[in-house]
Amino acid sequence: MDDDFEKGTGPRKFSYSDLVCSTNNFLEQEKLGQGGFGAVYRGFLKELDSYVPVKRISGGSKQGLREYASEWVWDLYGGGKLLEAADPRVNWNFDERRLERLVVVGLWCAHPDAKFRPSIRQVIQVLNFESPLPVLPSKLPMPTYFSPTVNASLPLPLSLGASISGEAQS
């Protein structure tokens, strides 16, 4: 991820003072939303002459760089802006359909819930235009975990020599 920052192909690093200035000291009226990392603010960066989202990562955030990068690409996918994931150094010299397939398949493979990930055969078929693109959620999905359920109609395993009432059998 640090290489991406330095190459200018990923999110950019700014000084904290620049971000404070761009968001009017993280003014509540500039807050766009709240996520797993913390709050997102609208900021104006003079050097880019543009409004940009600024994430202020909360101290209690348990998410790391990999989740941050994944969320960034999911946001591009959900916003219909996948082409913005392209390295700007290629100067738009790429096949847009292939880039779209590559990025969508990458998201599909990195789905946080393993049961929704594709097989290698599915990946190859989509990348070779033999199968349609999968339809993915517009936001980074959160993995779900289910507690095992106990079926009351099934007999419970008994320990050696114990009965259901807990009395020892002779």
UniProtKB/TrEMBL annotation:
- Say if the entry is tagged with keyword Nuclease: no
Identify the residues that bind ATP: K55
PROSITE patterns, sorted: PROTEIN_KINASE_ATP
UniProt keyword list: ATP-binding, Nucleotide-binding
Q: What are the recorded GO MF terms, alphabetically?
A: ATP binding
Which domain of life does the UniProt lineage start with? Eukaryota
Q: Which InterPro entries match?
A: Kinase-like_dom_sf, L-type_Lectin-RKs, Protein_kinase_ATP_BS
**What name appears for this protein in its UniProt entry?**
Protein kinase domain-containing protein
